[in-house]
UniProtKB/TrEMBL annotation:
Pathway: Carbohydrate metabolism; tricarboxylic acid cycle; isocitrate from oxaloacetate: step 1/2. Gene3D superfamilies: 2.20.28.60, Citrate Synthase, domain 1, Cytochrome P450-Terp, domain 2. This is Citrate synthase. Keywords: Acyltransferase, Transferase, Tricarboxylic acid cycle. The lineage of its organism: Bacteria, Pseudomonadati, Pseudomonadota, Alphaproteobacteria, Hyphomicrobiales. It catalyses: oxaloacetate + acetyl-CoA + H2O = citrate + CoA + H(+). It holds the Pfam family Citrate_synt. GO terms for molecular function: citrate synthase activity. It comes from the Bacteria.
Length: 429
């Protein structure tokens, strides 16, 4: 069957560009030869119509609100699996057998401690440092402690570095939280599952025994599954670009954490909760909807809209269900923030502006209410997003490194600056 092509005609010259078809989803026009054949670049700031790579990890259909991890629907993984099973699936491309799952859990559990000297690292921060600033720094600092797993060309070292990050990022996140609230650090407990261990490292104190609430642990584990990966989003693209230069995996993940922090991306969960608190009561919602629609007002509804989803984010639906589950378990009735959130969603989804622009709640809209109810301060919300997304970043980084066609990412530009001109001495300016 002859390969399909797209003909591009420039100044009377026609160039045939190959069309590549994936398993599902949009095809791509391979423009790699474009500059060589026409002397021109494509132009797509924000990459709204650009596929940066070939990948087999995650598939999103934004119009239908579909999210698949290695082909499995997010709804089924969130319902039936646990977060470490999803980590195995994203990394290995298949669901683990019972033996593979038990071995994987055992290996992750025994990498959860960090080098004791790293604990002193935290004391260098101002005590009011934002936990995300501590995460960017401490994950990057792992490359200073684990030199035996920074050679990206050695598959064994790549796997050790991957396991270390999946295992140690929750410990670093809990240390950042403890430093933020001024409580003593708590060590991992090997007899607890991944998410229960994280909860005890965050909320246990030396003065009394800490008992993990299994309902909250299951809910947080499901929240981690929802946040694990999401195709070529901004932070994943950052990790891939950093990795394409051969930088060590710890530095690449630190770059991803830095990008995730932005309020347009993972920082939206913190911003969305602050927005709900600022709205405060249902009667103030119209004022904020009007601001979100006002072209002259930079205010946006945080937790709403998405580059890819032009339908309801499937993760937001599961998130909303989890919110009700957690509030019920904690006996929180009529949470004012949830009341504002649900009324805001109802009004927005019936408003012409949001309908026309296809703006729906995304994963960050409800997550903050749940995490706040669990006892996390707002400043920790994006840290929890980063904890879960570390696995997706690693899976994508690994796929890029193992791609034989991989080369350093180096985009070009449309130059609109000054043409060549000669230097003028200062006394002649
Ligand atoms: C995440 O990419 C991913 O996969 C990310 C993520 C992941 O798992 O990795 O899903 C996680 O980052 C979710 C998104 C969290 N961010 C927010 O909730 C912040 C609020 N949302 C917006 O900033 C915005 O919707 C973005 C950044 C998410 C998407 O922006 P786009 O795709 O660049 O869309 P756009 O800015 O061009 O908006 C299209 C129109 C614009 O109006 P016009 O200029 O066409 O007149 O919709 C408007 C925007 O002004 N718009 C909003 C809006 N989002 C878009 N108006 C009001 N409130 C909003 N939230």
């Amino acid at each position: 069957m002859t390969a399909k092509t797209a003909a591009l005609s420039v100044d009377g010259n026609s160039v045939d560009l190959k069309i590549k078809q994936g398993t599902i989803g949009p095809s791509v026009v391979d423009i790699a030869p474009l500059y060589k054949d026409t002397g021109m670049f494509t132009f797509d700031p924000g990459f709204t119509s650009t596929a940066s790579c070939e990948s087999q990890i995650t598939y999103i259909d934004g119009d239908e609100g579909i999210l698949l991890y290695r082909g499995y629907p997010i709804e089924q993984l969130a319902e039936h699996g646990d977060f470490l099973e999803t980590c195995y699936l994203l990394l290995e491309g298949k669901l683990p057998t019972a033996q593979e799952k038990s071995d994987f859990d055992y290996r992750v559990t025994r990498h959860t401690m960090v080098h004791e000297q790293l604990l002193r690292f935290f004391h260098g921060f101002r005590r009011d440092a934002h936990p995300m600033s501590i995460m960017v720094a401490s994950v990057g600092a792992l490359s200073a402690f684990y030199h035996d797993s920074t050679d990206i060309n050695d598959p064994k070292q790549r796997m050790i570095a991957s396991m270390r990050m999946i295992a140690k990022v929750p410990t670093l996140a809990a240390l950042a939280y403890k430093y933020h609230v001024g409580q003593p650090f708590v060590y991992p407990q090997n007899d607890l599952d991944y998410t229960s261990n994280f909860l005890q490292m965050c909320f246990a104190v030396p003065c009394e025994e800490y008992k993990v609430n299994p309902v909250l642990s299951r809910a947080l584990d499901r929240i981690f599954i929802l946040h694990a990966d999401h195709e070529q989003n901004a932070s994943t693209s950052t990790v891939r670009l950093a990795g394409s230069s051969g930088a060590n995996p710890f530095a690449c993940i630190a770059a991803g954490i830095a990008c995730l922090w932005g309020p347009a991306h993972g920082g939206a969960n913190e911003a969305a909760l602050k927005m709900l608190e600022e709205i405060g009561t249902v009667d103030r919602i119209p004022e904020f909807i009007a601001r979100a629609k006002d072209k002259n007002d930079p205010f946006r509804l945080m937790g709403f809209g998405h580059r890819v989803y032009k339908n309801y984010d499937p993760r937001a639906k599961i998130m909303q269900k989890t919110t009700h589950e957690v509030l019920n378990e904690l006996g929180i009735k009529d949470d004012p923030l949830l009341e504002v959130a649900m009324e805001l969603e109802r009004i927005a989804l019936s408003d012409e502006y949001f309908i026309e622009k296809k703006l729906y709640p995304n994963i960050d809209f409800y997550s903050g209410i749940t995490l706040k109810a669990m006892g996390f301060p707002t400043a920790m919300f994006t840290v929890l997003f980063a904890l879960a997304r570390t696995t997706g970043w690693i899976a994508q980084w690994k796929e890029m490194i193992e791609d034989p066609a991989q080369k350093i990412g180096r985009p070009r530009q449309l130059y609109t600056g000054a043409p060549r001109r000669d230097y003028v001495n200062i006394n002649q300016r």
